[in-house]
Each structure stands twice: as structure tokens, then as C-alpha cells.
Specification:
With about 290 residues, this protein is mainly alpha-helical. It has helices at about 1-30, 50-65, 75-90, 95-100, 100-115, 125-130, 135-150, 160-165, 175-185, 195, 200-205, 230, and strands spanning about 215-220, 270, 275, 285. Helix 2 (about 50-65) crosses helix 3 (about 75-90) and helix 2 (about 50-65) packs across helix 7 (about 135-150). Mean pLDDT is about 85; it is low at about 280-290.
């Protein structure tokens, strides 16, 4: 069991690091292009071209004017479509497995966990936390409205994701740098603070947790109520009391599952009806209980 758990963690970390390096390379390559230098295979792609949220905020202008918001690339629409397909299938896996900012928050969080141990990720009282988590929906409404009315990519002035991969260019507004700094420092105390409280794209994807096809399910008959799943969840979701995890903050990281944290086999799994996804066997699926 321990070997399987290590394999799951390594698989996810490998995918996260791959996308972190890819996005960082694309951003660096875009900056180097001004000096006639380019990184092989990356072409002329920019950070805006690989941001699926750019497609979301451009939808209104595309429908009314027939063009995209300035700086947003056509590729963003394609990536948006892919992300929406995945979120309907398995929920916000983009947040838990792909997003480079989320990965950086998580890596810094490992330092915070060593510093504060069991106190880590518990500094904000639950009574306050449950309301703060809805702040990101306010950010989402504001971003979509302002972008639609101004036809400008306004969120770039506040976006820590954009600041993280462009801080060396001198083109990042002070507001975005401040939010990035607060996000990175906050990650020492809170797991994925921007993901929880500020990310508008995460807020949008989180809504699909209510209708996603594959979801995290807990088998109450084999659950031993050890709460290992609760402690493993970076988003502080009470998995141990749920039948199916439909919380809008779930990022499908699979840290709570029987292949990662739960000590009992086939108790916390990614499922759709009677079908279980075996994460260590690629995309193969089998009927629950069939051996």
C-alpha cells in the first residue's frame, strides 16, 4: 500500500513540475524573443496564449463584437474548451494537477508544514474560513463584468499567476506583485491561499463539482473514521463525513483517496456510479468489486 501511495504522489508531482517548467519556459522564451533568442520547440507562444481563463473572459466580446479581448490569443479558447471538458468529467483537475501557481503555493506549503507541523493550514478559524471561501466568486463576477464592459484584460493588473512568470520583465503592475507576495507568504501558513480565497478561474471550475461525472466517494461501510482523508485535503474539506465530495473547493488532487492517504483499500475513491478509476493503471476502469 505504501508503495502505491508513493507512486500516486510521484505521478502527480511529476505532472505538476512538467507544467510549471513548461509555462516558465514559455514566458522566458517570449521575453527572449525581443533579443532575437528563442528556446527550441516553443515557437512564439506567450503566457496569454496558454491561459484558459483568457478564453472565459473573452466570451462576451467574442459573442457581441466577434473579436477577442486585447492580449488574449485564440489558443486560449481551445484550452478553455479542453479545461471545460475535463472539469465536467473529473472536476477541477486543472487546479490540482496543472496550474503552476497552485504548484508553487503547494511547494511553499511544504516548508510551512515543516515549520508549523499540525498547526499548519489551521490558522484561520473554520467559522471565518467558510465565508472567506466565497470571496473568489466576487472576484470572478468583478473580472467578467469589468472585462466585458472595458474590453480590456483588467485582471492582468492583479493576477499573481501573471506576476509569477513575468516579474523579471518590469511590465508587471505593483498591484499584481503585491498580491503575488501575499500569496507566497500566505502559503507558509495556509495551503493554497489564492486558490481558496482569490482565484476566479478556480471559482468557475469549482461550480462543476456539483455536476461532474467522476467524483470522490467514501464507502461508509469500510470507513474506520480515522480522518486521514480530512488531514490530507489541502482545501480543508471534511471528506470523512461525505458520501460523495461535491464541495465547490475540491481540486481533484486525490490526496484523500485510498491510493494516497486513506489506510483502507477501496474506501475513498474517484468513481462514477459503480465504476472506479484506478489511477495507477492509466485510464482503465473496472466495476467496483470485480476482481
Amino acid at each position: 500500500m505504501k508503495k502505491k501511495k508513493n507512486l500516486v504522489a510521484k505521478l502527480r508531482l511529476g505532472i505538476q513540475v512538467f507544467f510549471l517548467v513548461l509555462i516558465a519556459s514559455i514566458s522566458l522564451n517570449h521575453s527572449l524573443s525581443a533579443y532575437g533568442i528563442s528556446i527550441p520547440l516553443l515557437g512564439s507562444a506567450s503566457l496569454h496564449a496558454v491561459c484558459p481563463f483568457g478564453g472565459v473572459v473573452s466570451l462576451y466580446q467574442l459573442a457581441t463584437v466577434g473579436s477577442l479581448v486585447k492580449k488574449v490569443h485564440e489558443a486560449s479558447l481551445v484550452l478553455m474548451g479542453i479545461a471545460f471538458f475535463l472539469v465536467i468529467l473529473v472536476g477541477p483537475a486543472f487546479c490540482g494537477w496543472v496550474c503552476p501557481l497552485g504548484t508553487v503555493e503547494e511547494l511553499i506549503g511544504k516548508i510551512g508544514r515543516r515549520m508549523f507541523k499540525k498547526k499548519y493550514n489551521t490558522f484561520i478559524p473554520a467559522s471565518m474560513d467558510k465565508y472567506l471561501r466565497y470571496l473568489r466568486y466576487g472576484v470572478l463576477v468583478w473580472v467578467v463584468y469589468v472585462t466585458a464592459t472595458t474590453m480590456q484584460l483588467v485582471f492582468a493588473d492583479y493576477d499573481p499567476y501573471y506576476a509569477l512568470f513575468n516579474f523579471w520583465t518590469g511590465e508587471v503592475p505593483l498591484t499584481a506583485m503585491v498580491i503575488l507576495a501575499l500569496t507566497l507568504i500566505g502559503s507558509l501558513f495556509i495551503e493554497r491561499p489564492f486558490c481558496k480565497y482569490g482565484c476566479p478561474y478556480g471559482a468557475l471550475l469549482g461550480l462543476f463539482n456539483k455536476v461532474r461525472i467522476f467524483t470522490i466517494r467514501r464507502n461508509a461501510s469500510t470507513c474506520i473514521d480515522c480522518k486521514a482523508c480530512d488531514r490530507a485535503c489541502p482545501m480543508n474539506i471534511q471528506v470523512s463525513t461525505a458520501g460523495a465530495v461535491r464541495d465547490h473547493q475540491c481540486i481533484t488532487c486525490l490526496k484523500c483517496t485510498s491510493e494516497a492517504a486513506c489506510p483502507v483499500s477501496e474506501t475513498v475513491e474517484l468513481m462514477a456510479g459503480t465504476f472506479t478509476v484506478k489511477t495507477l493503471e492509466g485510464v482503465s476502469m473496472e466495476k467496483e468489486g470485480a476482481k
